[in-house]
Specification:
7-stranded antiparallel β-sheet, 3-stranded antiparallel β-sheet, Pnp Oxidase, Chain A, 175 residues, 3 helices, mainly beta
């Protein structure tokens, strides 16, 4: 028997995750976006990532129609945007500096509080429970900052490395 939704959220709320904002445009060119922590790299060749989108998300119809988005991994200073894009506010882009992506069909590229960004084109959609998994090819990327924001048990926190000069390897390798 599956655990309750409450237990499930408690388990995953205990796991510190990066905080991201996904942005896109609707058919009329209006910017849309939401805060997301269900993000993962899928493949380096070709470069693919995935984001999980709640079926109730007001941004989902715009994502479906545009087929493109920008994933912004937030840096220190991005906490206010994380809260704004997690809210039910209608005008999330008022007062937020952005420019349209030349790669991701005009999706907003946020200019402040961003650790890294990936400009993406959706290549596959998978229905999974109460979410859609969007798998996207990364056609543009940038890494403008180096201090990430994490989400842990309902709180945004800034991660500070005790040994900034020690870097981990780039990632796991295939044997």
């Amino acid at each position: 028997m599956p655990v309750s939704a409450e237990q499930f959220r408690a388990v995953f709320g205990s796991f510190p995750t990066a905080v991201s904002i996904v942005t896109t445009v609707d058919p009329g060119g209006e910017p849309k976006g939401f805060t997301c922590n269900a993000v993962s790299a899928v493949s380096a060749d070709p470069p693919l990532l995935l984001v999980c989108v709640d079926k109730r998300s007001r941004t989902l119809p715009a994502l479906a129609s545009s087929g493109a988005f920008v994933l912004h991994m937030l840096a220190d200073g991005g906490q206010d945007n994380a809260r704004l894009f997690a809210s039910r506010a209608e005008q999330k882009f008022t007062g937020v500096r952005w420019r349209p992506s030349a790669v991701a069909d005009g999706a907003p590229v946020l200019l402040d509080g961003v650790l890294a960004r990936a400009e993406c084109v959706v290549v596959q959609q998978v229905e999974a429970g109460d979410h859609w998994i969007l798998i996207a090819r990364v056609d543009g990327a940038a890494v403008p900052a180096d201090t990430p924001v994490l989400y842990h048990r309902g709180i945004f926190e800034t991660w500070r490395s005790p040994a900034r000069s020690v870097r981990a390897p780039a990632g796991p390798t295939a044997d």
